Amino acid sequence: MLGGSSSCATSTVNCELSHFVSSFANMAASWLLKRWCSTAAIETTKGTRWQRLINSRAGVWCRSLLSDYKEACRETVLGARERPLKASVYLGLLGGMYACYYTNPDDDSFETSLLETSNHLALLSPWIRSGTSDGHVQTLVKLRNEGRLRYASLGIASLTYYTDYDPESSLYEARCSAISVPWSELPKRMLDVGFVGRWWVLDHKMKDFDINEEEFKHLPPALVATVPLSPQITERNEKLHQESWKAVVMEDESSELDAIQKDMDTPVKEIESDALYKAQAS
């Protein structure tokens, strides 16, 4: 009985020990599996974050936008190959618009041009200045000093116009938007147009700024109706003017006396020849 009981106890211990070892091995294997799965999950999560961003609404919209631009560029290149003349016209228009935008004058250039023209007129006497140029420039200078000049850029062109009040004025008429001047009156208030680096109205007003037209109104009718000289007469006058600047060449007295004696002998010889001819005829 004792031998049988001891063998049963030994087998029970062995079974429990093997069960413990197997349980420990299973726990270690499950721990390693969980650790590997968690690492793989982290790597999978890191790898799918970009995929989730691409598959999101913003990613789909960006991809479709890039695809549309790619297709538009491809069609543009193919269309340019098929119709080179049309493509050249469009390219010229785009280049012209960019050139106009690049050379579009700003408000500083207008003030610079205004000051330069004002200085040009200040160098002339009031009796010589053109009334049109002087009046236009004086009006612009007055509006500038009063702070009533405004500038508006249209991208490829610019406009300069005037307002009734200075923007820093505290008057009720200047601050109230209900009684402000509507935009429909802008054509009436426009002063100049800037295009391709020039202010065209100011340049037109400054044409012949050193000629006063009022002076010619008091001339006699004969001078007012004077016809300009022909090109031949003008050329002859220029030659005479050039010759007047040349040095005077003095001839010898002997040559002058010979020329005078020759001039005096010519009539005497003519008289003698006439008398001889009459004598022979008689």
Shape: elongated
Number of helices, counting only DSSP H or I runs of 4 residues or more:
11
User: Biggest sheet, strands in spatial order?
Assistant: 1-2-3-4
Q: From the alpha carbons, calculate the radius of gyration and give it in angstroms.
A: 52 Å
Distance between the termini: 212 Å
The overall pLDDT average reads: 77
Helical amount among residues, as a percent range? 55-70%
Q: Give me the strand/helix succession.
A: HHHHHEEHHEEHHHH
- Unreliable stretches covering 5 or more consecutive residues: 1-9, 40-46
- Total number of β-strand segments? 4
Strand content: 5-15%
Q: Give a quick account of the main beta sheet: strands, pairing sense, barrel closure.
A: 4 strands, antiparallel
Secondary structure class reads: alpha+beta
Please give a structural write-up.
This protein has a four-stranded antiparallel β-sheet with strand order 1-2-3-4. With 282 residues, the protein is α+β, with helices and mostly antiparallel strands. The chain is elongated and about 180 Å long. α2 (57-82) packs across α3 and α4 packs across α5 (131-145). The chain has helices spanning 2-55, 57-82, 84-102, 107-122, 131-145, 172-175, 186-189, 200-205, 221-224, 231-244, 253-281; strands at 149-153, 158-162, 190-195, 198-199. It has a domain at 105-216. The protein is built from eleven helices and four strands; from the N terminus they run αααααββααββαααα. This is Mitochondrial import inner membrane translocase subunit Tim29. Pfam families: Tim29. It comes from Onychostoma macrolepis.
